[in-house]
Design a protein that fits this description.
11-stranded mixed beta sheet, 18 helices, 13 strands
Length: 544
């Protein structure tokens, strides 16, 4: 098993030890308090959103060092300690996080021009590259030596805005694209992620560690990736906000891929404001990712229009056929709609999604062919850029590696998807090219675009998914209720989930989705709902 990189000042997990090396920022006109005062002012870090922490830093009430120190202590207590819940959400820590926090405080003290998330610690899903000695594994021991020492452009943008990368989160191995019988949140590198609300229950995937870590307040914000549901499901299951941006708003360069048609990274946060702050920093054009060509022209300050009155007069399409039959979900969804209506939203009932059974079947087949084809091509292209120490240079190499190391890599489920992907004919295959047209037509033009136009609505809403299920390694996942992810994922359109409440201590979310580049509109609607409803659940770390 890959061992966590230990901070060179790991003793700073305790405030007393950190006082001994504390910063000397308490004199003169400097706005950054000494560590003891900064920690006292901070109080319980889990009580604060990313936006709260940014405000406190700007006001000189606390320091980045105090914030990082507090999160390291929570990671030790909740993720690592033998007498704790052992969430297994954090896979590795960056060795320079505390040093960077101290440097961030010095920059603030010097009056330097600061970015929007300056001094804010974030955790990153371990299929996204971050410069430093920590490998990017995608949860497989095959990539234990994948130390590229390069930042993915989305990470570089966050760092340019002042963010501190605290570490990497666990995930579903290969972003849940290895087996049809996989258990979400399991990797050969670090084992199974737990849901902090009820520990035997699943954290969903593939961004399981990011969802669990965010719910447990192990960082101010986390980053996940999604191909179809991998931000939405863990955000809903762990009771946090998750945003899957339009494909092409955020760079995918140096991210272990599944599909260049559907892959994107996005923020997973405590609040909608936090997600807007992170997206503002992450978004933008990357010359090495052709899909992002329009991003610089589309991105904006996503916090600018967030107001509690954001739902007033907004026409909301209620996707009634996506609610399912669970009475508890129906009750909470109807309550959420009442909140929106009370805030001035105009609700438009959409009784049927309007996609025929044959089109739904065609969309499913087309998406599967796209993912299989692009996984082989995109993963081979990615592996070719990894360091020479990585000996698995192709998907065929990975299949052979898994077979040779089956006790480690395949103790609970196989690699059927790998095998099917290996058989695909490539990006020029006429069947693949036809599938691309099918998904664009059914999910986009005749799906979300048509639903918005024909019902004269700005946004569509439905429950994100049912509550989490009990994790059973070897028996796969047991999803409950219709999933809201499918159409936004296959169309490449944005999708926001916000906490809607809980069922038997397990969170559920409500989804907001619309057309391409509509992130600002979704965040505006989600923020107004969130402020009026306040349905986020605090994890109880229940043993059953």
């Amino acid at each position: 098993m890959l061992r966590r990189v230990v901070l060179s000042v790991a003793a700073c997990a305790s405030l007393t030890a950190c006082d001994a090396i504390g910063t000397a920022f308490g004199s003169g006109t400097c706005a950054v308090p000494e560590l003891a005062a900064a920690s006292a002012n901070l109080g319980n870090v889990e009580d604060h959103s990313l936006a709260d922490l940014a405000r406190m830093l700007e006001a000189g009430e606390t320091s980045s060092e105090a914030i990082v120190t507090a999160y390291l202590a929570r990671i030790e207590k909740l993720d690592d300690a033998d007498d704790g819940p052992q969430l297994n959400a954090v896979l590795s820590l960056m060795p320079d996080a505390l040093e960077l926090a101290q440097a961030s405080d010095a920059e603030r003290c010097d009056g330097d021009e600061l970015g929007s998330v300056h001094g804010i610690p974030l955790l990153v899903k371990d299929n996204i590259e971050v410069a430093g000695p920590v490998p990017t594994t995608a949860g497989s021991t095959a990539l234990s030596d994948n130390v590229t020492d390069r930042d993915a452009p989305l990470i570089r943008k966050l760092k340019d805005a002042g963010a501190i990368i605290l570490g990497k989160t666990n995930l579903s191995q290969w972003a849940n694209f290895r087996s049809t019988n996989s258990t979400s949140g399991w990797t050969s590198v670090a084992g199974l992620v737990k849901n902090p609300h009820r520990l035997p229950f699943n954290s969903c995937g593939s961004s399981s560690g990011s969802g669990s870590a965010m719910a447990a307040a192990l960082a101010a914000g986390t980053i996940g990736t999604e191909t179809d549901g991998s931000i939405m499901c863990p955000s809903s299951a762990n009771g946090v906000v998750g945003l899957k941006p339009t494909v092409g708003l955020v760079s995918r360069t140096h991210v272990v891929p599944i599909s260049h048609t559907q892959d994107t990274a996005g923020p997973m946060t405590r609040s909608v404001m936090d997600a807007a702050m992170m997206l503002t920093a992450m978004a933008g054009t990357d010359p090495d990712d052709a899909a992002t060509a329009e991003a610089d022209g589309q991105k904006t300050d996503y916090t600018a229009e967030l107001t509690p009155e954001g739902l007033k007069g907004m026409r909301i399409g209620v996707m009634r056929d996506q609610v399912g039959g669970n009475p508890a979900i129906i009750e909470q969804f109807d309550a959420a709609l009442s909140v929106m209506e009370a805030q001035g939203a105009v609700l438009v009932e959409i009784e049927a999604r309007g996609i025929s059974d044959s089109d739904q079947e065609a969309l499913g087949e087309a998406e599967f062919l796209i993912l299989l084809t692009e996984f082989k091509a995109d993963l081979n292209a990615y592996l070719a850029t990894t360091p020479e120490a990585v000996t698995t240079r192709t998907l065929a190499d990975l299949i052979a590696y898994n077979t040779a190391n089956a006790e480690v890599e395949m103790p609970h489920f196989g690699q059927e998807l790998f095998l099917q992907a290996q058989e695909q004919k490539g990006l020029t295959d006429p069947r693949y090219l036809a599938a691309l047209k099918t998904t664009k037509r059914i999910a986009g033009v005749e799906g979300i675009d048509r639903l918005l136009r024909e019902n004269d609505v700005a946004v569509l809403v439905s429950p994100t998914l049912g509550p989490a299920w009990r994790s059973t390694l070897g028996d796969g996942d047991t999803f409950s209720g219709p999933s809201a992810s499918w159409l936004p994922a296959t169309s490449g359109y944005p999708h926001l989930t916000v906490p809607m409440g809980g069922i038997e201590g397990l969170p559920i979310g409500i989804s907001f989705y619309a057309g391409k580049w509509s992130e600002g509109l979704l965040l505006k609607a989600g923020y107004a709902y969130e402020q009026a409803s306040n349905k986020r659940l605090t994890p109880q770390f229940l043993a059953e």
